[in-house]
Amino acid sequence: MASPRLETYCCPNRDAATQLVMNFQPEVFCGVCIGSASISLLLTILQLLPKKGQSPRKMPKASSSSTILLLISICDILGGLGMIFRSSVWLGFPGFIANISVVNGTDVWPSAFCVGSAMWIQLLCSAGFWWLFCYAVDSYLVVRRSAGLSTIVLYHMMAWGLAVMLCVEGIALLYYPSLSSCENGLEHAVPHYITTYAPLLLVLVVNPILFRRTVSAVASLLKGRQGIYTEHERRLGTEIQIRFFKIMLVFVICWSSNIINESLLFYLEMQPDINEMLLKNIRSAALITWIIMGVLNPMQGFLFTLAFYGWTGWRVDLKWRKREIPWESMSSSTVGENAYPSPVSYQSNIHDSKKVSTADSQQTDEAISMLSEGNTSGDDRLTRSSPIYQGW
């Protein structure tokens, strides 16, 4: 699981709330993390592998949406591997981990492992949050026809750059002046928690707004494609809206427990004695949400693939096959350059106004296809209604 408490525990003079959750059934907690992360890792890889009888998922070259979805899954996979490795060491070498609590200890490897593994998990989770934010931005820009190959470079700079910057800044402030003598006090740890939860809160607040605007823009595109808004267009717009809803639902399910747990622990930290009987229910709630985090955080990778692509099946096809370029892989500029020559010569005398209308309709189809990528039924209906499909 991913929590700033993992980094806080690396300080020998950690706060009482962190000590409470980290010392609560550590064997059970690590076992839960290993089990959840392992299941999610295997199912995520199974989801991404090509399947027999299915054509590989393809996206237009001018879109970066498919790349972003793949990078989100990669962040989840690598983060899951970090959780498995960290929890395995904690279970397999309890004596090694016990040296973290030793003040002024001479062995630096336990502390180095604690910091390194926690930073690895936190960095990849933060990068996944930023990539999910980039996906919402890219979906909106695609519909507005402002996205292209150059935007993926900006997304890389923002996602990886901000994730690294915030992670390093939070760790530097937390471990000041040194790892063996971290400063005490809640104010000292606040910047670290802010840098950790800032991208998570950004996705929770901003992504629904961007998705809502994208759905509205999709409805306008579908209406303007043929001048009418038929049941087919309405159904396709609804499918895109449901897909965005699934993405946000998975995110809320996997990370709401973190926000609840952190709020409870901050409340306990502000109390003079967290072991008071009056705080028993709050302590129990904090420990329950702590275990829930160990289950839900690693499962995000698999649940996201379900939201992105749906269930892709068990039949894996590992044979190499030559990739065919479908009509979706051609950009609007290529279409304008007669990438699909007409089999009938007299069609070259079509009026320029009709060419512009056809190109605009093709560009609209490509934008909608980018958003409905992974939805086979939606893609098939879109392809059958496209001018290029009818031209064949």
Automatic annotation (TrEMBL):
Ranges for region Disordered: 352-392
Cellular component terms per the entry's GO annotation: apical plasma membrane; lysosomal membrane; melanosome membrane
Pfam families xrefs: Ocular_alb (PF02101)
UniProt function note: Receptor for tyrosine, L-DOPA and dopamine. After binding to L-DOPA, stimulates Ca(2+) influx into the cytoplasm, increases secretion of the neurotrophic factor SERPINF1 and relocalizes beta arrestin at the plasma membrane; this ligand-dependent signaling occurs through a G(q)-mediated pathway in melanocytic cells. Its activity is mediated by G proteins which activate the phosphoinositide signaling pathway. Also plays a role as an intracellular G protein-coupled receptor involved in melanosome biogenesis, organization and transport.
Protein name: G-protein coupled receptor 143
Main location, first listed in the record: membrane
Residues spanning the signal sequence: none
InterPro entries reported in the protein's UniProt record: GPR143
Family the UniProt entry places it in: Belongs to the G-protein coupled receptor OA family.
Transmembrane stretches, start-end: 28-46, 67-85, 119-141, 153-176, 196-215, 244-267, 287-311
Organism of derivation: Spheniscus mendiculus
